[in-house]
Amino acid sequence: MFGAELNGQELAYYLNSNKIKIDCFCDNNEKFWGKNICLSIPCFSPVKLNKLNHDNTLIIISSRYYKEIEKQLTDLGFDNFFACPSYLYLRVKKYLLSANMQNIKQNISTLIDILDDDYSKIILVNIIKNWFSSINNFINTHNWEKAKGAQYFPQDIIKLKKDEVFVDVGAFDGDTVALFIKESCGKFNKIISYELDRNNYLKLLENVNQYETEIKSRIISHNMGLMNENKSINYFSGSTSAVIDPHSSATAHVVKLSEHLKNISPTYIKMDIEGAELDALMGAEEIIKTCKPKLAVCVYHNPEHFWHIPFYIKKIAPEYRIYLRHHSLDITETVCYAII
Questions:
Q1: Rounded to 5 degrees, what are φ and ψ at 184?
Q2: Quick one: pLDDT band at residue 243, thresholds 50, 70, 90?
C-alpha cells in the first residue's frame, strides 16, 4: 500500500476486517521508513519497494496524491497498481456486490419522492451514478460537484436564529464550532460539543480556550460519543477521526443524547461520527420528537445511510423536510439536512 498516512491506515484496517492482509506500506516520507505503521505492517522506502518482484506485486495507492504516485510507479517500472484514496470507495463497491439491486432501486425511488428540492435529487442521482462507475472514474474529482455555501450552514436551507442551542456531535478540534460562531456572528444561546477521541478532545478544549471569556462561557464540551445506549466502547484513533473498533485499545464512553440532554432543548444538531450516525439518531429520538431541532447528519460513511437516515427522520417526525448537499470533490461530506 503506497501511502502510510491516515487514509492508508484506515484502508488497511478495512481490508484486514475483510480478511485481506497488506504485506507492507510504502511512503515517500522517510519518517515512516522502517517502522510498523499499523497492524504490525512495516513501511518501506520507494528504493526498497523497487527491489520487489514487479510482476508479483500489487500496489494500492492510498494517498490523495495518487496522480503523482502513479507516475512515480510507472517510472519505476510497476504497472500492477490502482488508486483508492479512501476505504469508503471499496465499502461502496462491496455494498453493491452484496446488496439486492431491486431493493436499492426501490430505496432510491422512495428517497427521490421525499427529497424537498430538485437540487437534492440531482445530487443523489449523480452520487449513485458514481457508485456504479469504474474505480478510476469514481475517484476522479471532475465527477464530483461541490455545493455552494459552508458545510452544515448552507444559506438556502439553514437559517440561524439569535438563540440557537447548537449540538456538535463529532466536534473534532472545534472546526465546526468555529464555523458556527462565525456564521451566527457570535449570537447564540449555547454550544454543546461531543468528541469521542481523547486527543481531538484536548485540541477542542485548547481551541475553545482561545475565545473571549463571554463566548467560551457559552460552550460546553464533552469527551464522549453518542449511540443508542450508555456504555464504554473501544475505538481506533486516527489523526482526524475515531472509529469504533472492538480490537483497539483506546476506550471511551458513549451516551444517549435524549438522556444526556434531559433538561436542554437543542435547536440544531449536527452529526459526523464515522458511520455511527443512525445509532446516535436513535438515541436522540425523544429529543428530536419533542424539540424538532434542525438536523445536519452525514450520510456518506455507509452507502445505505443515504436512505436509512432520511427514512428514519421522516418516520419519527414526518413533518421534517429533507435535503441533500455534497460538500467535497470526492466521496466524502454528503450531508442530509432536515428542517421543519
A1: -90, 0
A2: low
